[in-house]
Design goal:
Layout: H1 3-7, E1 10-14, H2 21-34, E2 38-41, E3 55-60, H3 69-81, E4 86-90, H4 93-98, H5 101-114, E5 120-124, H6 132-144, E6 149-151, H7 164-174, E7 179-183, H8 189-198, E8 202-205, H9 208-212
Parallel strand pairs: 1-2, 1-8, 2-3, 3-4, 4-5, 5-6, 6-7, 7-8
């Protein structure tokens, strides 16, 4: 895989709480320079100006997922009004751990209704904190609620980020009906390529340049 090919899988990500306007502008510039698919940002930094070829992804209910569904929906609606192409929402992880998958589905559905297609909806299930059974059930809830992607991680949970096992299991669960995004803890180009081989069609990376250039990244996302 060439550097240019790998870059097309990347949501170049800046979600640091201390990110400044200058940091956001630099992230957008770098994403465009590297040929990333999108730049993934926090909702409070909107609106932003992007080059035409670069998509905008915005997180919702991030990073805890413990926001009321109405708040997540309002956040998604506002992001869409500010020209977000994609929404990356966090589920209520506690509900998934407890097996309350109807609540997980309802939470996702509220965001889907607030930001209907063609906005792309990615659902972050925090796979490192879930059993295999809960990963499968959460993916099924995302599909039932109308999501377009299931995503491994926020990159902020102490349980960890993406794993090859989780990506493979998520892909087996959703097949070709949904796509899979791997994020959190991807630090090398070999990590990135392995995630793609396991079934990921998108990667959340903050150290995109280092990974594309086959240098080890720093940080957790």
């Amino acid at each position: 895989m060439t550097i240019a090919d790998l870059a097309t899988y990347v949501d170049h990500t800046l979600l640091a709480p201390a990110a400044t306007t200058a940091d956001v502008e630099a992230a957008i510039s770098q994403a465009a320079e590297l040929g990333a698919y999108s730049v993934c940002l926090s909702p409070s930094v909107l609106p932003v100006e992007l080059p035409e070829e670069l998509k905008l992804a915005v997180v919702v209910g991030f990073p805890s997922g413990k926001h009321h569904s109405e708040i997540k929906a309002a956040e998604a609606r506002l992001a869409a009004l500010n020209h977000a192409d994609e929404i990356d929402m966090v589920i209520d992880l506690g509900a998934a751990i407890e097996g309350r998958y109807d609540a997980v589905e309802a939470d996702i559905r509220a965001v889907r209704e607030a930001a209907p297609k063609p906005v792309v909806l990615k659902v972050i299930i925090e796979s490192a904190a879930l059993s295999d059974e809960a990963i499968v059930a959460s993916c099924r809830a995302a599909e039932a609620a109308g999501a377009d992607f299931v995503k491994t991680s926020t990159g902020f949970h102490p349980a960890g980020g993406a794993s090859l096992h989780a990506v493979s299991l998520m892909k087996q669960t959703v097949g070709d009906r949904l796509e899979v995004k791997a994020s959190g803890g991807i630090r090398t180009r070999s990590d990135a390529e392995a995630m793609i081989a396991a079934g990921a069609t998108r990667l959340g990376l903050s150290s995109t340049r280092a990974i594309l250039e086959d240098r080890e990244a720093v940080g957790t996302y």
